[in-house]
C-alpha cells in the first residue's frame, strides 16, 4: 500500500489518496491532525508521500503524526515530505532588498487560507526537519530545495 497524504486534487494512481476534504470520490476523507493514521495497521505501507501537508498540522501534533507515519511504514519503507523551508523563505526575502510582495510572503509562511484547513500551523528548517525524523528513527536519505520548499526523503530503518 502507498499513501498520498493531504492529496487535495493531486490524485495519484497506485496510491490511497487521503485528505481532510473529499474533493473526489477517490479520496479517503481523514483528518490527520485529529486522527493521525489510526485507521491503518502497523507496517502496512511501503511508501507515504506528504507534499504540502505536515505544515497544516499543529506543531503540537507534528511529532505524533511523524511517529504514526513511522508506525505504518514497513521496514525499509520510504517517507517523502515537502514543506515550506523557513530559512529559504527568509534568505530569498532578505537577499532581495526591496522585495515587498506582502501576499507572496504571507502565502509562503501562513498558507493560502482559502478554506479553514489551508493554514500553516508548523514551521520547518532543514535541521529541524532532519532532527524530527531522525529522533523518531528514520534515516534521512535526501534533503533538497524546490524553490522555497524543502523536500525530505527518509527511510524507516529496522534492526
Structure characterization notes:
The protein is an alpha/beta fold and 159 residues long. It has a single domain (2-156), classed as 3-Layer(aba) Sandwich (Rossmann fold), CATH 3.40.50. The chain is 28% helix and 29% strand. Strands 3-2-1-4-5-7-6 form a seven-stranded mixed sheet. It starts with a strand and ends with a strand.
Radius of gyration computed on alpha carbons: 16 Å
CATH architecture: 3-Layer(aba) Sandwich
Strand residue percentage: 25-35%
Helix content: 25-40%
What's the topology here?
Blueprint: E1 2-4, E2 16-19, E3 27-29, H1 32-35, E4 45-51, H2 62-72, E5 73-84, H3 86-94, H4 102-110, H5 126-136, E6 138-146, E7 149-156
Parallel strand pairs: 1-2, 1-4, 2-3, 4-5
Antiparallel strand pairs: 5-7, 6-7
Q: Notable features of this structure?
A:
single chain; 159 residues; alpha/beta; Rossmann fold; seven-stranded mixed beta sheet; 7 strands; 29% strand; globular
A few lines on this structure:
By secondary structure, the protein is of the alpha/beta class. 28% of the residues lie in helices and 29% in strands. It has helices spanning 32-35, 62-72, 86-94, 102-110, 126-136, and strands spanning 2-4, 16-19, 27-29, 45-51, 73-84, 138-146, 149-156.
Amino acid at each position: 500500500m502507498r499513501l498520498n497524504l493531504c492529496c487535495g486534487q493531486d490524485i495519484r494512481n497506485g496510491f490511497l489518496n487521503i485528505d481532510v476534504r473529499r474533493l473526489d470520490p477517490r479520496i479517503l476523507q481523514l483528518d490527520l491532525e485529529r486522527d493521525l493514521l489510526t485507521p491503518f495497521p502497523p507496517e502496512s505501507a511501503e511508501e507515504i508521500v506528504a507534499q504540502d501537508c505536515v505544515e497544516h498540522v499543529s506543531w503540537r501534533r507534528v511529532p505524533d503524526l511523524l511517529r504514526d507515519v513511522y508506525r505504518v511504514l514497513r521496514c525499509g519503507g520510504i517517507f517523502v515530505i515537502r514543506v515550506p523551508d523557513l530559512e529559504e523563505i527568509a534568505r530569498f526575502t532578505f537577499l532581495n532588498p526591496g522585495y515587498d510582495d506582502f501576499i507572496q510572503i504571507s502565502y509562503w509562511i501562513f498558507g493560502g487560507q482559502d478554506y479553514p484547513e489551508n493554514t500553516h500551523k508548523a514551521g520547518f528548517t532543514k535541521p529541524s526537519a532532519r532532527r524530527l525524523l531522525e529522533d523518531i528513527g528514520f534515516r534521512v536519505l535526501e534533503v533538497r530545495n524546490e524553490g522555497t520548499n524543502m523536500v525530505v526523503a527518509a527511510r524507516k530503518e529496522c534492526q
